[in-house]
Write a structure and sequence with these properties.
By secondary structure, the chain is α+β, with helices and mostly antiparallel strands. The protein has eleven helices and 36 strands. The chain folds into four domains: 2-22 and 315-403, Immunoglobulin-like, CATH 2.60.40.1180; 33-307, Aldolase class I (TIM Barrel); 408-543, Jelly Rolls (Sandwich); 547-583, no CATH class. A hairpin with a 7-residue loop joins strand 23 and strand 24 (443-446). The longest helix is centred in the N-terminal third of the chain and has 15 residues, at 2-16. The relative contact order is 0.09.
């Protein structure tokens, strides 16, 4: 009977979880997977090289596991016709033009990608001495080049750099506005009638929330190079940007250096963290001579499935220990019992981390799978001790008996309405994500307020049944400040006198709120003055709108959805959260 009750409760829980197919905002396309010429070859490319890499993607089995795009980066340009402005192709590197190359890519069942710049000049013309690349950028030729690339040549992807739009990156010191340029380029692509073209905006830092309206993916970091310090730095830059990966649009951590000169452990971390953080996967090595270990890593279907998971989520940090980070994300079903997590060790020594499953909102017996080894890793309860080598990462899926309702939402998992990394955030204004030891998760969000849009939003606050909750806000402020609290767009309370007693001291303020069943948005804002820095919000269920999912543990204790002890396990009727629950 106990098993039957548990099965029924699990079934009821499944009815209130959200699958990818049930969510209107989800799309079917995961991050871009393919190959790019830049990391290994720079501007020194030619049509023979591209044909060989195209063939290798098929013969090495990479196409079979999901890699699709062959992307021609900088170096194919041949100037412009001085009379018509028509873009010309390099006469010796691509003597037969690009159409035959694109047709060959398509004939292999693959997709073709191209490169340009939002300004007049490309990065290669400035930094690689490729003078023939001057004047070939999209600026003043948006529609002409878009028609050429996507209607005439048939390309399916474009990476748009910004060397020509940044005065310090080009000879004519042209200063362009990123939002205006990328929006105009996206419109030019749309004007071609093609709806399947993916645009990657390469501005080397997160440009702002507007970018998700115009690009499929966008760079959040500087250029990668073939070295551990580069990979570690890029992961660090992207650790707290999970809120900006949404609705099938992705933070791009740059192309892969797997298979070049890093150690096998570093390559594993590089690829694995790109996968769990839902970054595009663009191979950057020579696929014709790739090492077997590197090839097997790039073809790991467990990790690829993690990257291409239909929920399209970026993992967020839930734990820091011994210099390591634990990151987690839902897979397959939102708020379901299955999650993926990584234990990432950027330090120079082996570390052991006690992974706490309660911080992942998982309870009961947990089935583990090691994604690097592609096999079961047994079971665990409550905690798991994981030893990770220097520069290494362990990645698992964890399928639990119980998915507990999340109670802690760190500020760094929230969405800042004006966040950007291009201009001084204090004058714009826009928020900042800053690692500090005194914050609960090791990070806070500061410089909020002074604008209604410079707010902090938790857009994924899930309540299974809805109900009355006590919301506790953890904040940091050395002076009295104010923040407006809204839930699902409705004003709740203007919180005044928020003073924690110091700029490295966390204070709290609690208020009761009502959440609806399903997803909710909790936001804090101040349209005219600076807000406190934010550490976290915490939720405690006070009164549910429905019967809570109940787990009956082996030690004769019952727990509700939030993991709270609710009643001893005895036969008969019990009142739990104002509802009658019968235990047989």
């Amino acid at each position: 009977m106990r098993k039957q009750i548990f099965a029924l409760l699990c079934f009821l829980n499944c009815l209130t979880t959200t699958s990818a197919q049930d969510t209107d905002t989800q799309v079917s396309e995961g991050p871009t997977m393919g190959w790019s010429s830049w990391n290994t070859y720079g501007v020194n490319i030619n049509e023979t090289l591209i044909r060989k890499q195209t063939a290798a993607m098929v013969t090495k089995g990479l196409k079979a596991v999901g890699y699709q795009y062959i992307n021609i980066d900088d170096g194919y340009f041949g100037g412009r016709d001085p009379e018509t402005g028509q873009l010309l192709i390099h006469p010796t590197r691509f003597p037969n033009g690009l159409k035959d190359v694109v047709d060959n890519i398509h004939a292999k069942g693959l997709k073709a990608g191209i490169y340009s710049d939002a300004g007049r000049n490309t990065c290669g013309s400035m930094f690689n001495g490729d003078a023939i690349g001057k004047g070939v950028g999209l600026y003043e030729h948006d529609q002409q080049d878009a028609d050429f690339f996507f209607k005439e040549l048939g390309f399916d992807f474009i990476k748009v750099d910004f060397c020509g739009g940044s005065w310090y990156h080009n000879e004519d010191h042209l200063v362009l506005d990123e939002r205006e340029r990328y929006t105009a380029i996206a419109q030019a692509i749309k004007n071609t009638g093609r709806t399947d073209v993916r645009m990657n905006a390469c501005r080397w830092a997160y440009p702002g929330p507007w970018i998700s309206d115009v690009a499929f993916s966008w760079r959040t970091t500087g250029d990668i190079y073939d070295g551990w310090n580069s990979v570690k730095g890029i992961i660090q830059e992207n650790l707290y940007l999970s809120a900006y990966c949404h609705d099938g649009h992705y933070n791009d951590m740059d192309m892969l250096e797997v298979g070049r000169s890093m150690t096998a452990e570093e390559d594993k971390t590089h690829f694995g963290m790109w996968c769990i953080m839902s970054s595009p996967l663009l191979i950057g090595c020579d696929m014709t001579s790739i090492k077997t270990t590197s090839l097997n890593l790039l073809k790991n279907l467990d990790l690829i499935s993690l990257n291409q998971d239909p929920l399209h989520l970026q993992a967020y940090v839930v734990q820091r220990e011994n210099g390591c980070y634990v990151l987690v994300k839902d897979v397959e079903v939102l708020n379901g019992p299955k999650r993926a997590f990584a234990v990432y060790n950027p330090t120079d020594e082996e570390q052991t981390v006690n992974v706490d499953f309660s911080l992942m909102d998982l309870g009961g017996t947990i089935q583990l799978r090691n994604l690097f080894l592609r096999r079961s890793a047994g079971t665990a309860e409550d905690k798991l001790e994981v030893t990770v080598p220097a520069h290494g990462t362990a990645i698992y899926t964890a399928e639990a008996e119980q998915r507990l309702e999340r109670t802690l939402y760190e500020a760094e998992t929230g969405f800042n309405g004006t966040y950007q990394e291009l201009s001084n955030n204090q004058t714009l204004p826009s928020g900042s994500y800053d690692e500090v030891d005194y914050a609960s998760g090791g990070c806070k969000v500061g410089w909020l307020g002074k604008s209604a849009d410079n707010n902090l939003q938790w857009r994924n606050v899930y309540s299974q049944y809805g109900g009355l909750y006590r919301l506790t806000i953890g904040f940091i402020s050395g002076e009295s400040r104010t923040a407006l609290l809204t839930v699902n767009g409705e004003r709740v309370q203007n919180l005044t006198g928020l003073n924690s007693g110091g700029w490295s001291t966390v204070g709290t303020r609690s208020v009761n709120i009502r959440l609806k069943a399903g997803m909710n948005t909790i936001a804090l804002s101040n349209a005219s003055a600076w807000m406190p820095d934010m550490d976290y919000i915490r939720l405690e269920l006070l009164e549910s709108n429905g019967i809570n999912d109940v787990n009956i543990s082996d030690n004769n204790v019952a727990y509700d959805l939030s993991g709270r002890r609710v009643s001893p396990k005895k036969k008969g009727i019990h009142i739990i959260n104002n509802k009658k629950i019968s235990f047989q």
